[in-house]
Amino acid sequence: MGILSGIFKARDKPVNATSGSSYRFFMGGSTSGKPVNERSAMQMTAVYSCVRILSEAVASIPLHVYRYNDEGGKEKAIDHPLYFLLHDEPNPEMTSFVFRETLMTHLLLWGNAYAQIIRNGKGEVVALYPLMLNRMTVDRDENGRLYYTYNTSRDDAPTMKGSMVKLDSTDVLHIPGLGFDGLVGYSPIAMAKNAIGMAIACEEYGAKFFANGAAPSGVLEHPGTIKDPARLRDSWTSTFGGSSNAHKVAVLEEGMKYTPISISPEQAQFLETRKFQINEIARIFRVPPHMVGDLEKSSFSNIEQQSLEFVKYTLDPWVSRWEQSMIRSLIPGADKAKYFIKFNVDGLLRGDYQSRMNGYAIGRQNGWMSANDIRELEDLDRIPAEEGGDLYLINGNMTKLKDAGIFADADNGKEVSTDENEEVLELEESDGNSGENSVSERDNRRGKLVR
Fold first, then answer.
1. pLDDT at residue 425 greater than cutoff 70
2. Cα–Cα distance, 138 to 131 (Å, whole number)
3. Among 8, 47, 84, 107, which residue has the least CB neighbours within 10 Å?
């Protein structure tokens, strides 16, 4: 095929590179003229707020390792080596919160998160260490297998001398973001660099506006010829420039006149532009505007619903990326059918106190929640089993569908048997006595039938 032979390759036979790792050129200058990268973007309050909200949310959700039990249910695998690493300390230097917050920040800014997996002689995971994104590349060897190349630094450890370390795919926990090849994610900052660059330009314009005394620039007109215009300009700037000199009264001599030439921020809709850019950045990260301080379209009636939608449509996809990547990299293939890793987001979906209590009451009355089930969800101590803490109760006016006519047969004096056919009760036809004792006796006998 000649020249075209190197273009068409099967997906399972790549050569020496991943198609996603070469798209680093997206980062850089924006159309607003402002350079945009991961660190300059974090100087924008909206970007910083969105990254902080998402990283802290993922870091604060309880993370557990579960095993399937013989009854078909699940239970926490507290004795599994991974449980302590993921739930408490991934390494001796970090808590689980800090570790997940760091990786989530990398994921939001660079589009990928990497952590080195340290194993013991048995192949068990004993530690997880975050790796910097800007020093990691993903490639393939001559057999098409993925490997990671990490550029070490003396900042990592005093023994490091800036060498390149090749890591096997089994030694790296890689959580990719949205990408084109499914292997390497793309940076949201790079993809939205023009929107972020415009926000940076608007912020810089506002800062310079107040630095110039909140007065638009203009022209000093003199009827004659000025011998040293530079000295006059510098004198004017030093006297009336800067926010500390705002609203000073200018005295013009020798017929000079000051003429503004710039449009006002109101005419340029400066404030509206800044507000729109905040919503634009919140849209990039899919964060509700009220969570970044924009309450213009929020109220007490819809904030709770927006918060629930934040968990469902924003956090859930990120949580799924974490869970599946950790299961793939940290749990051996033979154990995947027995163990799994899961975030517990139930606490974020519980709603307000009254709604939770109403939900618990429904579950308790319908028999699918016990008192201890409810108390565990509310982080309360369990009630001893001998005091009824594990009992499942239902309302007395409910019965099975096939027993729907049992009381009617009892009233007609027919012989009725229970489901277990253990007891047969024969109800005699009423003798016409409607006294209280007869009614009580019939109700008592009917109660025996129910029991």
1. no
2. 13
3. 8
CA distance 201 to 205: 6
* Separation CA 84–CA 90 (nearest Å): 8
The residue written with tokens 């007109």 in the block is 221
Residue 130 host element (H or E): strand 125-131
**Higher local confidence (pLDDT), 25 or 169:** 169
Q: Name the residue among 425, 428, 429 with its Cα closest to residue 449.
A: 425
Side chain identity at residue 148, one-letter code? Y
Summarize pLDDT for 248-296 with one digit per residue, the tens.
556 666 667 776 656 565 555 666 777 777 888 888 899 988 888 777 7
Structure tokens belonging to residue 144 = 């098409």
Which amino acid does the sequence have at 419?
Answer: D
Model-level pTM?
Answer: 0.68
The 10 Å Cβ neighbour count of residue 331 is 19
* Start-end of H helices in 212-302: 229-240, 270-285
Q: Write out the two tokens for 7.
A: 């273009």
In the block, tokens 């030439």 appear at 261
Tell me the mean pLDDT in the region 185-203. Answer: 83
Query: Where are any strands of DSSP class E within 152-240?
Result: 164-168, 172-176, 218-221
Adjacency order of strands within the sheet including 146-151:
136-140, 146-151, 164-168
Pairing of strands 339-343, 257-260: unpaired
Q: Are strands 257-260 and 218-221 parallel, antiparallel or unpaired?
A: antiparallel
What would the pLDDT profile of 144-167 be if each residue is shown by its tens digit? 888 999 988 766 666 666 678 889
DSSP notation for 27-56: SEE-TTS-EE-HHHHTTSHHHHHHHHHHHH
Contact assessment for residue 176 and residue 183, using Cβ atoms and an 8 Å cutoff: yes
Q: What is the C-alpha to C-alpha distance for residues 194 and 92, in angstroms, rounded to an integer?
A: 40
CA atoms within 13 A on the CB side of 158: 0
Report the C-alpha gap between 313 and 322 in whole angstroms: 15
Q: Report whether 187 contacts 27 (CB < 8 A).
A: yes
Q: Of the segments 237-241, 396-400, 419-423, which one has the largest average pLDDT value? A: 396-400
Structure tokens, 244: 């500390």
Size (the chain), residues: 451
The span from the CA of 199 to the CA of 38, in Å, is: 14
